[in-house]
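Recap slide: Putative methionine and alanine importer, small subunit, sequence and predicted structure.
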Amino acid sequence: METSAVIMMLFGLVITWGGAAVCISIALKRKNF
């Protein structure tokens, strides 16, 4: 694999997991956990 391809893949994972974490934290705050 090229270095750029690996970087793009990691970047995509970070955005995906980051977005999921934000959604979960917002949901927990709305439920007042």
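The radius of gyration is 14 Å.
The mean pLDDT is 91.
(End of recap.)
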